[in-house]
Write a structure and sequence with these properties.
Order of helices and strands: EEHHHHHHEEHHEEH
Structural class: mainly alpha
Shape: globular
Largest sheet: 2 strands, antiparallel
Number of helices: 9
Radius of gyration: 20 Å
Strand order of the largest sheet: 1-2
């Protein structure tokens, strides 16, 4: 595929470039859509930027969680001249999406508290930006060869030639592109729903209930070892079930609150 691109004389990872483009696409959505929902653009941008910071922190922390014992054992590398290998091993690669989602919510919530804003008021612009950004990220995964699918004969499988995070020369299901397409569909649904619902609190659970089943099913077609199987399901499948249950609980709680008024 295309793991690296050269821009202005500098060689960059395609994944990083697409991640930046995804961030900018989400930012453009926030800026353009805020007036439609009666939101202050500056407040929306602050919430978006700090939620994105939470994405990076949360995605990295959750990826490190199962590695903590080995990471603790390797701490002496920091003062024995091997700190670069320590950083390369633990800090420069590996992200877990659900950790990023949790980090985004925490980052946005803390920012809303700091500026005395009601976070759910901004869900019509913030929530659709999540799958929009993620769609770019999954294309980046495809370009790097990570998060790849199981082996499959052509024309169903795609054989990588320059993958930096997966096998080359073996036809694999392009689940990264499947998920990217699904994210764009979810984005369109949420954008449509945001313009019609009067209860903005429902948007975040709605996103989770659209994404979690999609991720659960796609995991069956994943072939990369980073999935970490626990019993019959992968880590992401268990997290999808937990996220869907939490979303249903939030919707149930909200419905009961409306009835009690």
């Amino acid at each position: 595929m295309l793991p690296y691109v050269t821009l202005f004389g500098h060689t960059l990872s395609t994944y990083s470039v697409l991640a930046i483009l995804g961030f900018l696409a989400g930012l453009l959505l926030v800026v353009l859509a805020s007036p439609r929902f009666g939101l202050n653009r500056d407040d929306s941008v602050y919430l978006y930027v700090f939620s994105f910071t939470g994405v990076l922190v949360g995605a990295k922390l959750l990826s490190l969680l199962p590695l903590l014992p080995q990471m603790a054992a390797d701490l002496p590398m920091l003062w024995t001249g091997e700190w670069e290998r320590f950083v390369r091993t633990y800090l420069t690669s590996g992200m877990v999406y659900y950790g990023g989602l949790a980090g985004a919510v925490v980052g946005a919530w803390l920012t809303a508290r700091y500026f005395s804003l009601r976070l759910s008021d901004f869900f019509p612009v913030l929530v659709p930006a999540i799958p929009l950004f993620h769609a770019f990220g999954r294309v980046g995964c495809f370009c790097a060869g990570c998060c790849y699918g199981v082996e499959a004969p052509e024309p169903w499988g795609v054989a990588f030639t320059h993958a930096v995070a997966g096998p080359n020369g073996i036809p694999l299901l392009p689940v990264q592109l499947w998920e990217s397409g699904a994210e764009l569909v979810i984005f369109a649904i949420l954008l449509w729903y945001a313009g019609r619902t009067k209860v903005r609190e429902r948007l975040l659970p709605a996103y989770v209930l659209l994404y979690a089943p999609t991720r659960f099913v796609l995991e069956f077609f994943r072939g990369d070892p980073a999935r970490r199987l626990y019993g019959p399901l992968s880590t992401s499948q268990w997290l999808s079930l937990a996220a869907a249950a939490a979303a249903l609980w939030l919707l149930y709680r909200r419905k009961n609150h409306e009835y009690s008024k």
